[in-house]
């Protein structure tokens, strides 16, 4: 006996099912069949020297079965086959398998039949396209289907089955695990019982100038990165920022620009807001210190300190300008630092050595208004008695700096103050622009800006919500994370905590402090007056994505020592890391899925991946390391860990040789590589979101998924049947010629 089987050359799902039925049957029944290719949309079985000519696949399957049991009779049609030829056929035509059809099938079907039975082969083949689309939701049928598919002879047919089904239609369907979605922020964010509640602040920048890149990375970008991370972990988070608007610096700048201090604050508050918006700094609320809430809360703290005997009046000698006849507040005076001999030290602090100063300590002081030499005269001021609070402050610092894992430089600065011994600290100034001192006889004085400014975090929160005390007077349920440059550490670890302790109120106090050193520019310092360096308003002029700037600044974040902004390094990191690593990984796989799968994620078995368990462990180890670094606010190492996962994703595609040959010759393996790979991209898009949110959002859109949370370990988030969108380039190569052009434009010094 000689049988010749012609498979259908059609590309529809009906053609695919027909071919699968007869191919599985011929393998199961081990018949000597010659398979030929004929250009036809039908399967045809012919018997040499016979008039037998079968063109209906179910009949061919039943005929094969009859031959295998050596019977001359064709088995009778069962009710289940009638159902298959009507209901399941209609489902294939309409590409819609509803739950009622599955339920009816489950009631009719005998799951105890052996795989040699033609009914099993016919039903399995008809269900196969729906299985590939993850549309079989009946658990009883699904369990049988998986068991049948894993029968060795069936599995072999499936892996070697070369007749391609028509590529599935990309309907835009979303099929993901909902428990991996990032939680949406509520209209009013308040602490929640039973959750981890995190309050995050970035140092309030002086409103009197435009921030440069060092200012951006030193506080707002670092704070934003951590805030985005903990929000992507679905913690309950409030991120507060704003501008510090009172003080000498504002008065002097307003005089130079010939406008009022309020006009100056309004102008630069808007400038700051626009710059941070462009850098994708996602404050939950961005406020300012020139508000009524600031006055009310700062004066309340002052009054409680006064009541608790932590404030005292002192008559001291203060510099007075004989030319314009005014006492000079600290920032109106400049001279040589008595500690490090820096010639441009301000009257409140030396920018070089970081020491806090009183103006009269300066060597050869000069009035900033008219360059006159000031003279000492007696005046009264209010002092915060830090010496009386040292014991409590010292105990708090030693406990909290370890518990909250402060950055090393922050602990060093705070402990150096304690070692020297805390002294009474003047908290009033002879100025007009500031919070009025609520004490008789001090009507013409204001609170010192660095006593007042740290209270700004509280007042800005109060302007966000009338329930501000739920954040700021809730130490058992709220953790306060603060981000700043090293020159601000003393005010946040000594002055502000001492003020909180001195009121005896149940304040939420600093839990973790993340402090940066200085970012230098091409071997020198940023200088607006000398036109040296890139400032916030310049960055957007280069036509690059905010993600490129954020990535570079975070990659050189000066966490333990000063670091350098370098144009050559900036371009190299864009081209060699963002483009060649992350961009290549995402673009390569998304393009491949669109080309070969019409953008529809296939069903697969990860066991078809080479060394799958080892690969999975590698990704989990990398993800655990990433989360450890980020939880401990090691942002630079966290970024490196995120990019290491992307690099491993690239290597995964290379190791498994993802290409058209794999798709054509090892389809089952290709399906698994694609499914696993797209889930790596999903996790990568989540873990990079704290650093480069614009890029992350682009990947989410290409994956056709909403924002995802950051998981503890690798999970299959994107399921079979999910439809992705078209690939879009994430980054573009920067011509190295731009290095010299930009260096010249921003007057950087050659290294």
From TrEMBL:
Domain Methionyl/Leucyl tRNA synthetase: 198-589
Domain annotation Methionyl-tRNA synthetase anticodon-binding: ranges: 613-750
Coiled-coil annotated spans: 609-636
A Pfam family it matches: tRNA-synt_1g
Top-level division of the source organism's lineage: Eukaryota
Swiss-Prot/TrEMBL GO biological process terms: methionyl-tRNA aminoacylation
Transmembrane segments: none
One function term, GO molecular function aspect: ATP binding
Location(s) in or outside the cell: Cytoplasm
InterPro entries cross-referenced by the UniProt entry: aa-tRNA-synth_I_CS, Anticodon_Met, Met-tRNA_ligase_1, Met-tRNA_synth, Methionyl/Leucyl_tRNA_Synth, MetRS_core, MetRS_Zn, Rossmann-like_a/b/a_fold
Catalytic activity: tRNA(Met) + L-methionine + ATP = L-methionyl-tRNA(Met) + AMP + diphosphate
Keywords, ordered alphabetically: Aminoacyl-tRNA synthetase, ATP-binding, Coiled coil, Cytoplasm, Ligase, Nucleotide-binding, Protein biosynthesis
EC numbers for this chain: 6.1.1.10
CDD domains listed in its UniProt record: Anticodon_Ia_Met (cd07957), MetRS_core (cd00814)
GO CC aspect terms: aminoacyl-tRNA synthetase multienzyme complex; cytoplasmic stress granule; cytosol; methionyl glutamyl tRNA synthetase complex
Family of the protein in this entry: Belongs to the class-I aminoacyl-tRNA synthetase family.
Protein name, per record: methionine--tRNA ligase
Protein species of origin: Ascoidea rubescens DSM 1968
Species classification: Eukaryota, Fungi, Dikarya, Ascomycota, Saccharomycotina
